[in-house]
């Protein structure tokens, strides 16, 4: 087809160019914009997802199990996590590890390998898990923000003011921040937020570790027993041990978002699976090292009376400013961790709604907003209300690809 000026129509050029997109330096083999993730960015995502404020409860978990069983269980769960993760890494592509069909999400992996009712069952479990994590992070962030305000209130009043406060305002504030960050259009583009969250997780873990070491030096002894808590009934001991196992297992859990993280890794060489395996061993080794330090030194400091949150064992005053820094780091970390866990959930909701209502402008239409200094931002109203902007960046790739190749032609 020829235009009025005699030149070839852009659509004809696009038809030729689209066959060459696998060789393009701008697009991957599936037609999407080239992924740029590395082993280090993937490690940041994993560490952000794994090292949560739950690290502060590991001293309590070891207290339930004792000096022998506690560290052994922690190392065992680290090995299980690593082994199962490298198996899951191989499921990113179906068939050939280099040119096979990509599975973009955990549910795609389940669909490719299991199918049938297992897809529905795993989908329900995964997304309910993600919703639960999101709720837990919202509550945990509010608790940390309240701890900062309460410690400063106690400090100002000298302990005379009971400093009662409502957590609603803190949860609403956390939600407002998440609405803003949720407009980041793709998992691949929140690497900087994950990196910041990773740094924050090491900051508050290091503070907890430092305070634990200081407490051990102050006590001039290593507290704790070989078998852990003993001044309880047998039923309470069994229940506490199972709770400890659950806490440690949950502290390593990130399988439900591993594939989504792997989907941010750039194409071979090396293969995505090899890069993700490297990221897995880096992240699991790093988290285990910090878990062992925080859990063991926390237990050494407080013994069988270790608190559920290591930071609360040091009170509000000594030193209250350091605890404020630790709680602030927890809040910042949870902001990033919330995004890492919720991006797959956003993608599911938005993709399903777009397919369910393909003619809805509210769901599918983008509003172009010019922002000085950067590219035109495409705002989707449904994404704004649903909390994310994953759909626009992934499902519309083919349309945007056609526009980009046409303009190049």
UniProtKB/TrEMBL annotation:
It is a multi-pass membrane protein. Residues 35-367 form the Amino acid transporter transmembrane domain. InterPro entries: AA_transpt_TM (IPR013057). It is found in: Cell membrane; Endomembrane system. The chain crosses the membrane at residues 42-62, 68-92, 127-148, 190-213, 279-300, 320-341. GO terms for biological process: amino acid transmembrane transport; auxin-activated signaling pathway. It comes from the Eukaryota. GO terms for cellular component: endomembrane system; membrane; plasma membrane. Its main location: membrane. Keywords: Amino-acid transport, Auxin signaling pathway, Cell membrane, Membrane, Symport, Transmembrane, Transmembrane helix, Transport. One of its GO terms (molecular function) is symporter activity. Belongs to the amino acid/polyamine transporter 2 family. Amino acid/auxin permease (AAAP) (TC 2.A.18.1) subfamily. PANTHER family: OS05G0424000 PROTEIN-RELATED. Carrier protein involved in proton-driven auxin influx. Mediates the formation of auxin gradient from developing leaves (site of auxin biosynthesis) to tips by contributing to the loading of auxin in vascular tissues and facilitating acropetal (base to tip) auxin transport within inner tissues of the root apex, and basipetal (tip to base) auxin transport within outer tissues of the root apex. May be involved in lateral roots and nodules formation. This is Transmembrane amino acid transporter family protein.
């Amino acid at each position: 087809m020829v235009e009025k000026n005699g030149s070839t129509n852009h659509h004809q050029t696009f038809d030729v160019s689209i066959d060459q997109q696998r060789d393009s330096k701008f697009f991957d083999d599936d037609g999407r914009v080239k992924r740029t993730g590395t082993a280090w960015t993937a490690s940041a995502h994993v560490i952000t997802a794994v090292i949560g404020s739950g690290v502060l409860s590991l001293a309590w978990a070891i207290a339930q199990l004792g000096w022998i069983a506690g560290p052994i269980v922690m190392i065992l769960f680290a090995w299980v996590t690593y082994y199962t993760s490298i198996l899951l890494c191989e499921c990113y592509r179906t068939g050939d590890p280099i040119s096979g069909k990509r599975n973009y999400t955990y549910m795609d992996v389940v669909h490719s390998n299991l199918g049938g009712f297992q897809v529905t069952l795993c989908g329900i479990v995964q997304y309910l898990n993600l919703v639960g994590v999101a709720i837990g992070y919202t509550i945990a962030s509010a608790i940390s923000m309240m701890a900062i305000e309460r410690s400063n209130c106690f400090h100002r009043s000298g302990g005379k003011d009971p400093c009662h406060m409502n957590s609603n305002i803190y949860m609403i504030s956390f939600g407002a921040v998440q609405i803003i960050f949720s407009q980041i259009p793709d998992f691949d583009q929140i690497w900087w937020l994950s990196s910041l969250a990773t740094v924050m997780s090491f900051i508050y873990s290091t503070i907890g570790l430092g305070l634990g070491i200081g407490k051990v030096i102050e006590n001039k002894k290593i507290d704790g027993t070989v078998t852990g808590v003993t001044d309880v009934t047998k039923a309470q001991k069994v229940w506490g041990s199972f709770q400890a196992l659950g806490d440690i297992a949950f502290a390593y859990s990130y399988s439900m978002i591993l594939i989504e993280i792997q989907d941010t890794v750039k194409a071979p060489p090396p293969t995505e699976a090899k890069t993700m395996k490297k990221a897995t061993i880096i992240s699991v080794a790093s988290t285990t090292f910090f878990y062992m330090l925080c859990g063991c030194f926390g237990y050494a400091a407080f013994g069988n009376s270790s608190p559920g949150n290591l930071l609360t064992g040091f009170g509000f005053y000594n030193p209250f400013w350091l605890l404020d820094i630790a709680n602030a780091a927890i809040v910042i970390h949870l902001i990033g961790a919330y995004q890492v866990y919720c991006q797959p959930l956003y993608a599911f909701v938005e993709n399903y709604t777009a397919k369910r209502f393909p003619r809805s402008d509210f769901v599918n239409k983008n509003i172009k907003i010019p922002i000085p200094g950067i590219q035109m931002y495409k705002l989707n109203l449904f994404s704004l209300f649903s909390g994310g902007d994953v759909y626009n960046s992934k499902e519309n790739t083919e349309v945007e690809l056609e526009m980009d190749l046409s303009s190049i032609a």
